[in-house]
Amino acid sequence: MASLVIAEIVDGILKPTTLNAVTAALQLGDAVDVLVAGHEIQTAAAAAARIAGIRTVLVLDAAPLAHDLVENLTPPLVALARRYSHVLAPATTQGKNLLPRIAALLDVAQISEIVAIQGPDVFVRPIYAGNVLATIQSTDAIKIITVRTTAFEATAAEGGSAAIEAVTAGDDAGLSRFVGQNLAKSERPELTGARVVISGGRGLQSGENFKLLETLADKLGGAVGASRAAVDAGYVPNDYQVGQTGKIVAPELYIAVGISGAIQHLAGMKDSKVIVAINKDEDAPIFQVADYGLVADLFKAVPELTDELDRGR
Amino acid sequence: MKVLVAVKRVIDYNVKVRVKADGSAVETANVKFSMNPFDEIAIEEAVRLKEAGIATEVIAVSLGITAAQETLRTALAMGADRAIHVVTDLELQPLAVAKALKVIAAREQPGLIILGKQAIDDDANQTGQMLAALLNWAQGTFASKVVIADGTATVTREVDGGSETLALTLPAVITTDLRLNEPRYASLPNIMKAKKKPITAMTPEDLGVDLAPRLRTIKVTEPDKRQAGVKVPDVAALVDLLTNQARVI
Question: What range defines the domain where residue B48 resides?
């Protein structure tokens, strides 16, 4: 049997999270096909065909599939999934929205956010905000899996030359319609793939003050994130949120600024290579996971850090 | 329009979860349980729809052991009108719950079903999507805003890149994200009143669904703990360590 990876595509562009899911699929040992679904996705299909190590790129291109309307995507995907032993997608909001829908119609379980593969039917996944790891065995014929992208290295985006094959799409189910979107535009790297992440919490006190973090992030070529408290307070939009129910990040360097360190936040960043915490409360739980802790007023320490980096280069 | 809301009893989000010594499961004895926080948001949204005159009745549903009744009482105290409890000692997984909810939906004929986007115990994030699939309804997952009008639910969803808005034909399934609303606390008079509201108990056999788990837990473990590092005296020392020791800048 073979594995199928459902590529993540946003506005016609193949997202790098796809490459992490491909790595997980390749670990299963059998041939890996990549499905590119949507509308006007030739560029993404061509990019997918260059991924190293994959067999075929299947293209499902039809107007009703634009904007990932799952009501329209599910029927052709259910038919396609029956040809595979494993169907995988990155555990992004897209993958989480779609895969349970496919699994239910195949009458199989869905396995969420795996972080390790121990056999064709044995997987490790975090539960309880990552405070517990469960090793589970699937008894179903088809395994429908979302992959925690930080747990698998990216496969090389170039080097392959897979055949591209068109697949028949279905009709518009008439259940849902795309109205609009408000996607963040940023020159900075994406939070989930950035080498450096600077996150702010309630200690920042306002959205305006996040500029301090942006300046520092730009100095380090990093992305800016936030705790749930900062998002709930309206300082920054929801796509900044790092944590159990937000984004999971594992950068080389994570700098937590004015974040106390609730377990729900730690769940989203504790696999970072190096953690720095800047907080004026020396008892803040964030210091228990930080490699380097600085007990200081962030409004002094962050500009100082930016200046110090200026001087060093 | 009836609104059905599914709620789950989970270990309270403030509890530090521990693994049993034999690695078979998480310790649940003498641990505080409460309603899954995302489900509180789901109940709140349904009750607001009733207060706005859009919903006619709010029905809370839960599956699980006898103690799940407490969670349903909380839902009733927040403003649900009545509750359904599918009593079972089985380990419940999302597909099984979705199948049971499908049968209940067929009987109750709600115009809208609201669920939390994920339960904070298994972190699966599946049940709403599976239920929508089994019913062949539209789904609006990770909702941060819901507007119901003219047979359509206009749902703003929190997605990785920002937000998007979909128009869903009713009946539909919605799953809640954190910023949909801020759930109310149940007042003491409402807690008293909730004791008189009806909870209908039923069994999986009454529903005719197979709730057997499809995933077998081989073991659970606690991940390696991150060791606390060092406190640095000032920014210069921090930069020095990041440059020369950690070598990340």
Answer: 2-224
